[in-house]
Design goal:
Length: 303
């Protein structure tokens, strides 16, 4: 007598072929779908558009002229100015943020002090643009509140002493307003990761406070500090609204030159603007990639 195939499989205990069902689908993918859609529309898509436009002329034909134009003296000078400004503001923010983090987290201050600084930093790190420029003009401008108080109450003329808010150093000081709190937020977990056992072991071996930081603390924090510096550099490099509101269109950092090429009435060359934007993407991408590498290296000490 012949047995049918399904009966034979059932008797022999063979597994039945799986049938796709809705229960086998991982519905968690729906939760991350908006992220992938957002990334595609507002990150990958625009970058591909910039790459395409950077290698086209006004008629849409392929050309290398826009990339070659990036080597012109005025554009090289604008990249140099942006890089120097970003380095200075990132350096100031990294040093000041590290000192602030050490005082708040490792200085034995009450917990409410850390909570207050963390809350303020979360707001201040995102405060930029025209409101920030206006706040500094109203505070440290030639007729700003602090400037007038120093002149009238203490007889000290801030601008006669050499300070100028509308200068390279003055703009770096404005950048410090959002660079310092961002540094504090990023370095705080790394400072928390310094184990008390390391300090105790160093003290048992006779190390001084300075020797502990020189041989243990700073080497452990070094990848995080360098990574934070790179992140602050990228944060400052792409800033447009703050510098435009404070310095005007004559301060030729790369974002302003790019804005002039895309939206200007005189210097109008959108494809050159795309090439400038592509150069910014490359610099910021390299900076963020190095930051991720250093962050992964620093996380090994916190495991």
């Amino acid at each position: 007598m012949t047995l049918d195939a399904s009966a034979t499989r059932a008797e022999l205990g063979a597994p039945r072929p799986s049938v796709p069902s809705l229960r086998s689908f991982n519905w968690s993918w729906l939760g991350v779908a908006p992220f992938f859609l957002f990334t595609l529309l507002f990150l990958i898509g625009p970058v591909l558009y910039l790459v395409t436009g950077a290698f086209q002329n006004a008629e849409g034909a392929f050309t290398f002229d826009n990339m070659i134009a990036l080597g012109s003296p005025n554009i090289v000078a604008s990249f140099s100015l942006s890089i120097r400004l970003s380095i200075l503001s990132a350096l100031m923010g990294a040093v000041a943020g590290l000192l602030l983090g050490h005082a708040v987290i490792l200085g034995g201050l009450p917990s409410w002090v850390r909570n207050a600084f963390t809350t303020f930093s979360g707001v201040a790190s995102n405060f930029a643009g025209v409101p920030l420029a206006f706040a500094f003009i109203a505070t440290l401008g030639r007729l700003g509140l602090v400037t007038v108080l120093l002149r009238d109450l203490f007889g000290f003329n801030l601008y006669a002493a050499g300070f100028d808010l509308f200068s390279f150093v003055g703009l770096s000081l404005v950048y410090l307003y959002f660079q310092l709190p961002l540094m504090f937020l990023i370095i705080a977990p790394a400072l928390d990761g310094l184990k008390s056992e390391w300090r105790e072991a160093a003290e048992i071996l006779g190390a001084t406070r300075r020797q502990y930081w020189q041989m243990v603390g700073l080497p452990v924090l070094a990848p995080t500090i360098l990574g934070c510096f790179l992140l602050l550099f990228a944060n400052a490099f792409g800033t447009l609204a703050t510098v435009y509101a404070l310095m005007g269109s004559g301060f030729d950092v790369v974002p302003i030159v790019l804005f002039q090429q895309i939206r200007g009435n005189v210097l109008y060359n959108p494809n050159l603007g795309y090439a400038l934007a592509l150069g910014m993407v490359v610099i910021m991408g390299a900076s963020n990639t190095l930051y991720l590498i250093l962050r992964n290296r620093a996380e090994r000490w916190q495991k």
